[in-house]
Amino acid sequence: MAKQKVQYEFPMHCLSEILYEYLASAEGLAEWFADEVVEKGDDFYFSWGGGPAEKATLIRYKPESFVRFRWEEDEGTKNFFEMTIVIDEITEDLSLNITDFSEPEDREENRLYWENLIENLQIKLGAA
Fold first, then answer.
1. Whether the model pTM is above 0.85
2. pLDDT for position 84
3. Burial (Cβ within 10 Å: 0-12, 13-18, ≥19) of residue 46
4. What is the domain partition of the chain in residue ranges?
5. Phi/psi of residue 15, nearest 5 degrees
6. What distance in Å separates the CA atoms of residue 115 and residue 8, rounded to the nearest whole number?
7. Fold of 4-125
């Protein structure tokens, strides 16, 4: 069965410039997303717990706005994961919107995974 698009929104209490650095750089991503991140051009290699690195390619980005990656296993599909910084025009509240793709039976696990990751990010940023 094909993966389905899922979207999440997390309020963040920080500056968009600082948040973007945690989304778009190997150093920033290694603070909260993976144990180790190596960047080689547009390819990012993520590893957890000393396991083998998983490759994701940065396929689109806009500075201080969003980054979109595609996992190597999703090459040739329309699947990706994207992290978008959204600032409310009226309140100026900042949120981080996540777009991802998951198997229907893994939706709840995927949601919990992202909630845990973003909680780690909020702690690093002091943005909880």
1. yes
2. 98
3. buried
4. 4-125
5. -80, 140
6. 9
7. Alpha-D-Glucose-1,6-Bisphosphate; Chain A, domain 4 (3.30.530)
CA dist 72 and 112 (Å) reads 23
Q: Give DSSP secondary structure letters for 85-105.
A: EEE-TTT--EEEEEEEEE-GG
Inter-residue contact 16 to 87 (CB < 8 Å): yes
Please identify which residue in the block is written with the tokens 């949601």. Answer: 111
Closest CA to 37 of 49, 21, 25, 20: 25
d(CA 66, CA 26): 15
pLDDT, averaged across the chain: 94
What number of other Cβ atoms are within 10 A of residue 70's Cβ?
21
Query: Which residue type is seen at 74?
Result: D
